[in-house]
Structures are given as structure tokens and as C-alpha cells.
From TrEMBL:
GO terms for cellular component: endoplasmic reticulum membrane; mitochondrial outer membrane. GO terms for molecular function: glutathione transferase activity. The chain crosses the membrane at residues 20-41, 87-114. It holds the Pfam family MAPEG. Conjugation of reduced glutathione to a wide number of exogenous and endogenous hydrophobic electrophiles. It comes from the Eukaryota. The gene is Mgst1. It is found in: Endoplasmic reticulum membrane; Mitochondrion outer membrane. This is Microsomal glutathione S-transferase 1.
Length: 159
């Protein structure tokens, strides 16, 4: 049992894995914060999708007017959905990449660019900034994840 514990702690001693864990935690926390931003927008815009969410705003027909969509709430929701579509693959592929033995400097470059691109993407979506800002920030993050996937496949399949 002691030997198993030693093996699991060796991963934490790996600088690339620690960098992966750091930047993954940052983007996952950013993604989680999008839920709070959505809730904030729903409350301030009084735009809800579930009848029980309007109970404190009135009864019957007076509460039904709050069952609606709002452009700002939908914008936040789309940004959050885009996070789910991009951060989840980063987490999985990034782990495989971190375990594939990349150079620390290269791994840091991948992790930092992805994290910066996702944060910029969120600001570009919510402010909103004119295109192509949002599109470019998405493409940069996507390219980083693809680059890591290529490195993993190259290492595993000896391409």
C-alpha cells in the first residue's frame, strides 16, 4: 500500500503535470463562474425558464411574464456552452498530453495560450467585442487543443 501511495505522489512532483493541474483548475473555475454570471443575468433581467423560479415574483399571470428569454441571458448561456464544448476536450487531451512527456516550456506555452484564449473568448462574447475577436480567440484555443492531441498521437502511435 505504501508503494502505491508513493507512485501517486510522483505525479505531483512532475512540473508539467503541476502546470496542467494549475491551468486546468483556472479554466474549470472560469467555466463554473459562468453559471453564476448566468444566474446574475437571469435575476437582474427577470428572465426565467422554470415556473418555480418566478414564485417570488408573483402568482399566476403576473409571474408568467417572467417566463421568457432575454438576449443578454442567452448570450451568457451561449458563452457557457462554448466553454463546455472547448474546455472539456482540453481537460482530457491536456491530461494525455501532460503524461506524454512534453518539454515544460512547450507545455506551459500550450496551457497558457489556451487559458488566455478562453478568458479572452468570454470577454469577447459578453462585452461583446466586434468580430473577428471572438472567432480568433476560439480558433487559437481550438488549435492549441488540436496541437496537444497531435503530440499525444505522435507519441503513442510513433507517427
Amino acid at each position: 500500500r505504501r508503494r502505491e501511495m508513493a507512485k501517486s505522489t510522483q505525479l505531483i512532483d512532475n512540473e508539467v503535470f503541476r502546470a496542467y493541474a494549475t491551468y486546468t483548475a483556472i479554466v474549470l473555475l472560469k467555466m463554473m463562474l459562468m453559471s453564476l454570471v448566468t444566474a446574475y443575468y437571469r435575476l437582474t433581467k427577470k428572465a426565467f425558464v422554470n415556473p418555480e423560479d418566478t414564485a417570488s415574483l408573483g402568482k399566476g399571470d403576473s409571474a408568467k411574464k417572467y417566463l421568457r428569454t432575454d438576449a443578454d441571458v442567452e448570450r451568457v448561456r451561449r458563452s457557457h456552452l462554448n466553454d463546455l464544448e472547448n474546455i472539456v476536450p482540453f481537460v482530457g487531451i491536456g491530461l494525455l498530453y501532460a503524461l506524454s512527456g512534453p518539454e515544460l516550456s512547450t507545455a506551459l506555452l500550450h496551457f497558457r495560450i489556451f487559458t488566455g484564449a478562453r478568458i479572452l473568448h468570454t470577454f469577447a462574447y459578453l462585452i461583446p467585442l466586434p468580430q473577428p475577436g471572438r472567432g480568433l480567440s476560439w480558433a487559437v484555443g481550438y488549435a492549441v487543443t488540436f496541437s496537444m492531441a497531435y503530440k499525444v498521437l505522435k507519441t503513442v502511435l510513433l507517427l
